[in-house]
């Protein structure tokens, strides 16, 4: 057989790699392409095509597939550059990342990346790719390399089995690939759109990270390689190239993290990449454009560019949050590092070995061991607080959660809960703590107060929901409003059946100012903060009246000062750099003038005040505890007042117990 065109050097494939890596980098640099992450899907299709073409070339020239040679060549191609970046990132991460969870998560991900399992590690720790917390992980991007390496392990074995067993090998390979495509795509759709599935934890996260739900993307590229001889004879290659590029660009512009991904929308970049690869089987103007020397150059560097760009961006944002200049500098450094890595690491090892032996395995094994040592050192250091008293104090206060956090802050109707772990005994009048996590944060204060006053305490809170129904509608979470309605109605009914006592009610009023949340009002919708604040106050007053009719007295804790973040919506200790915690913990804290805080909280305060004034309920205003001498702060005199921008720490909650004792008396 003559060698089909698909197996010759394809400059347009390198150009397509350049497009893919550029989309990813532009997205991660926050330069306007919200859907640039689909560049990874383009890479998957390319990999499926290239690997299959390479295996077919081996079959045509030697009549068999040598798995040992395939795996060792892949190892020498991918491992050296990856290890350099993993080790560098670990060393820098020891200084710049936070020891309050970020270093630990990064270390686990980096160690897993060294052995091709970072996607599984990220899934195991339920890391939503698009969440602010996960975006601070400098190894986050390695998930796609894990998927790719797992496909490299699985696919040659399948192809070899087909070649050994089937009589009509090419046809059998196409059938198997078609089955893989259909099954994997079906699993991807089911997991992407399901909240709950048997066996599979966090289905949407499983769909994003795991190889079984991504295999169809590789298989699409593999099918093109298998059918290249026949596909070359078809017409429309030029149209396919331009249509494919258009689909990829449309996906990068219009797909974002508001839609389940991969889901059905992943078809757009996958089909786009497939069309470009198919189009290049017969040279045309589009494929010639992609084969332009600058595109091929970036394509050659694409692996190293992909490896370097994300950790450098994470570190740049750590040092200079919100600095465009820092981001641009990180991108320039990315190119320099990628060029040097390609020239002095990738190139010397590419094609260096052709046989699998203990001698050839030695180098990859040593390299992986070095990476594991670097990642492990960061993990052990972070877990031991680096032997520093400032880091230890911060970890003790900031990583702690309120007592009963997992049982009492529930999403189960109150009447169906086992409230035993959320009840503390006493002889006097009962105390009931209700509301969302901004109520749950007072657990330590109220346990102490209830013990001081010898009064029983029961905590029945619900994450994200006040104890009154404001008609909440989340644009990105249609189920949340219904959850809050269930909590408000069921909680009120439950309390009406309890002995008369004191109900302490608290909730974060951020939904008043959140543009992604609106309130139902009759047949209409309220979306401006002023109207939402009025409805918030009216709903609060109505609930207070109902509780008073049931014989309870009500104390309201208005929303405490909340602190905005720099690289994320709310201040969080994971923004703290290890070096800063060593030197001066206050460098990690948030500090806002009282006047600025009052201005940012104005609409929320209006809603709370309206409800309190209308109902005549008593209040426990804690703003003065956090804001002193004209400043509101999250850290003061060795104590972390807040564990994140929305919640006080359990340590500080214990400190303000006296305020609740006075109010309850």
Key terms:
665 residues; alpha/beta; Rossmann fold; 7-stranded mixed β-sheet; 3-stranded antiparallel β-sheet; elongated; disordered N terminus
Descriptive notes:
The protein has about 675 residues and is an alpha/beta fold. It has two domains: about 5-385, no CATH class; about 400-560 and about 600-620 and about 650-665, Rossmann fold (3-Layer(aba) Sandwich). Strand 14 and strand 15 (about 640) form a beta hairpin. Helix 1 (about 10-30) runs parallel beside helix 14 (about 295-320) and helix 8 packs parallel to helix 9.
Question: How is this fold's topology laid out?
Answer:
Layout (H helix, E strand, L loop, with lengths): L10 H18 L10 H24 L4 H30 L5 H13 L3 H7 L18 H23 L3 H24 L10 H7 L1 H16 L1 H5 L4 H18 L12 H13 L5 H6 L2 H27 L4 H26 L8 H26 L5 H10 L6 H4 E2 L12 E2 L6 E5 L1 H4 L2 H11 L3 E6 L9 E3 L5 H17 L5 E5 L10 E5 L2 E3 L2 H21 L3 E5 L20 H6 L7 E3 H7 L1 H14 L2 E2 L3 H4 E2 L2 E3 L1 E2 L2 E2 L1 E3 L2 E2 L1 H6 L1 H8 L1
Number of domains: 2
What is the 3D shape? Answer: elongated
Name the helicity range: 55-70%
Number of helices: 28
C-alpha termini separation: 93 Å
Overall number of strands: 17
Q: Stretches where pLDDT falls below 50 for ≥5 residues? A: 1-7
Query: Measured on Cα atoms, how large is the radius of gyration?
Result: 29 Å
Structural class: alpha/beta
Mean pLDDT: 91
DSSP strand content: 5-15%
Q: Major sheet: size, sense and barrel closure?
A: 7 strands, mixed
What is this entry, summarized?
The protein is built from 28 helices and 17 strands.
């Amino acid at each position: 057989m003559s060698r089909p065109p698909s197996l010759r050097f394809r400059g347009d494939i390198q150009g397509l790699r350049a497009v893919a890596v550029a989309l990813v980098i532009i997205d991660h640099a926050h330069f306007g392409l919200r859907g640039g992450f689909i560049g990874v899907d383009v890479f998957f299709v390319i990999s499926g095509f290239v690997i299959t073409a390479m295996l077919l070339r081996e079959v045509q020239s030697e009549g068999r597939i040598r798995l040992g040679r395939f795996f060792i060549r892949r190892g020498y191609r991918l491992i050296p550059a990856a290890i350099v970046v993993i080790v560098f990132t670990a060393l820098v991460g020891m200084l710049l990342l936070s020891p309050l969870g970020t270093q630990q998560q990064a270390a686990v991900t980096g160690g897993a990346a060294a052995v091709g399992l970072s996607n599984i590690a990220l899934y195991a720790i339920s890391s939503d790719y698009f969440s602010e917390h996960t975006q601070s992980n400098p190894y986050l991007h390695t998930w796609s390399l894990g998927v790719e390496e797992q496909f490299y392990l699985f696919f040659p074995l399948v192809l070899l089995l087909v070649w050994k067993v089937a009589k009509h090998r090419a046809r059998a390979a196409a059938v198997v690939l078609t089955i893989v495509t259909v099954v994997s795509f079906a699993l991807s759709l089911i997991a992407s759109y399901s909240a709950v599935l048997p066996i599979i934890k966090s289905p949407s996260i499983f769909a994003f990270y795991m190889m079984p739900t991504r295999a169809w993307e590789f298989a699409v590229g593999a099918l093109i390689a298998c059918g290249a001889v026949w596909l070359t004879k078809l017409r429309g290659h030029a149209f396919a190239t331009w249509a494919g590029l258009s689909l990829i660009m449309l996906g990068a512009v219009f797909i974002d993290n508001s839609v389940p991904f991969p889901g059905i929308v992943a078809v757009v970049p996958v089909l786009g990449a497939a069309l470009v690869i198919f189009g290049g089987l017969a040279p045309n103007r589009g494929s010639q454009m992609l084969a332009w020397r600058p595109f091929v150059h970036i394509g050659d560097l694409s692996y190293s560019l992909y490896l370097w760009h994300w950790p450098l961006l994470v570190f740049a944002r750590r040092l200079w949050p919100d600095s465009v200049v820092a981001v641009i500098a990180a991108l320039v450094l990315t190119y320099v590092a990628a060029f040097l890595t390609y020239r002095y690491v990738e190139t010397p090892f590419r094609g260096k070995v052709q046989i699998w032996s203990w001698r050839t395995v030695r180098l990859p094994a040593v390299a992986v061991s070095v990476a594991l040592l670097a990642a492990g050192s960061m993990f052990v250091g972070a877990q031991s607080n680096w032997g520093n008293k400032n880091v230890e104090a911060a970890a003790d206060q900031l990583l702690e959660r309120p007592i009963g956090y997992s049982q009492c802050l529930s999403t189960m109707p109150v009447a169906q809960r086992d409230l035993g772990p959320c009840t503390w005994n006493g002889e006097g009048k009962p105390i009931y703590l209700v509301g969302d996590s901004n109520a749950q944060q007072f657990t330590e204060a109220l346990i102490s107060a209830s013990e001081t006053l010898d009064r029983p305490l029961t905590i029945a809170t619900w994450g994200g929901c006040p104890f009154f129904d404001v008609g909440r509608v989340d644009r990105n979470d249609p189920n949340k409003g219904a959850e809050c309605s269930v909590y408000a109605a069921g909680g009120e009914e439950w309390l009406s059946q309890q002995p008369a006592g004191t109900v302490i009610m608290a909730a974060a009023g951020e939904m008043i100012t959140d543009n992604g949340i609106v309130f139902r009002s009759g047949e209409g919708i309220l979306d401006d903060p002023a109207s939402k604040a009025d409805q918030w106050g009216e709903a609060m007053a109505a609930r207070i009246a109902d509780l008073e009719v049931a014989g309870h007295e009500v104390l309201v804790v208005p929303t405490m000062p909340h602190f905005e973040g720099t690289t994320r919506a709310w201040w969080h200790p994971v923004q703290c750099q290890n070096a800063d915690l060593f030197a001066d913990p206050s460098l990690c804290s948030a500090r806002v003038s009282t006047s600025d805080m009052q201005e940012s909280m104005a609409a929320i305060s209006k809603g709370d005040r309206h409800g309190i004034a209308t109902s005549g309920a008593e209040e426990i205003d804690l703003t003065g505890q956090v804001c002193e001498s004209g400043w509101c702060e999250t850290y003061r005199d060795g104590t972390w007042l807040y564990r994140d921008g929305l919640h006080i720490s359990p340590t500080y909650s214990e400190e303000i117990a006296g305020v609740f004792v006075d109010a309850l008396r």
